[in-house]
Specification:
Oligomer: single chain
GO molecular function: DNA binding; DNA-binding transcription factor activity
Structural class: mainly alpha
Number of helices: 6
InterPro entries: DNA-bd_dom_put_sf (IPR009061), MerR-type_HTH_dom (IPR000551), MerR_fam (IPR047057), Tscrpt_reg_MerR_DNA-bd (IPR015358)
Protein name: DNA-binding transcriptional regulator, MerR family
Keywords: DNA-binding, Transcription, Transcription regulation
Strand content: under 5%
Length: about 140
């Protein structure tokens, strides 16, 4: 059985909840350093890889894009530096999330209004079809 400091890719996947192909992908794009190989050419990971992969996974769960994660990892590798840039990245991400939420709320309002306005009679008088055919029937310009 592998020790805490020498994990196979399968053991790393189990400890972090990240699938093996994803681990290989993160290595290929440089988010996760390429693992040293054993004499039988198997990847060998240490606790640092576990921690880094958990960081990446959590950042992905929070919706950060790969490039932002790359920058955040660079900052995490230098704990003495100021966190202004990390804060800026997080604030930018938050603004993007809030923008998406606003668009989704507008979308929900439009579809709700469309559905509630439908008499469910015949297609010729169907409010759903009418709204989809002419954007002028919408409340919002963008959704």
């Amino acid at each position: 059985m592998p020790t805490m400091s020498s994990l196979t890719i399968g053991a790393l996947a189990k400890r972090t909840g990240v699938k093996i192909p994803t681990i290989r992908y993160y290595e290929s794009i440089g988010l996760l350093p390429e693992a040293p190989r054993t004499g039988s050419n198997r990847r060998s990971y240490d606790d640092g890889a576990v921690n880094r992969l958990r960081f990446i996974r959590h950042a992905r769960e929070l919706g950060f894009e790969v490039e932002a994660i790359r920058q955040l990892l660079t900052m995490a590798d230098d704990p003495g530096r100021p966190c202004r840039e990390a804060d800026r990245l997080a604030r930018t991400h938050l603004a993007e999330i809030e923008s998406r939420i606003a668009r989704l709320e507008a979308l929900r309002d439009e579809v709700r209004r469309m559905v509630e306005g439908c008499a469910q009679d015949q297609v010729r008088s169907c409010h759903v079809i009418e709204v989809l055919a002419d954007h002028a029937h919408c409340l919002h310009d963008r959704h």
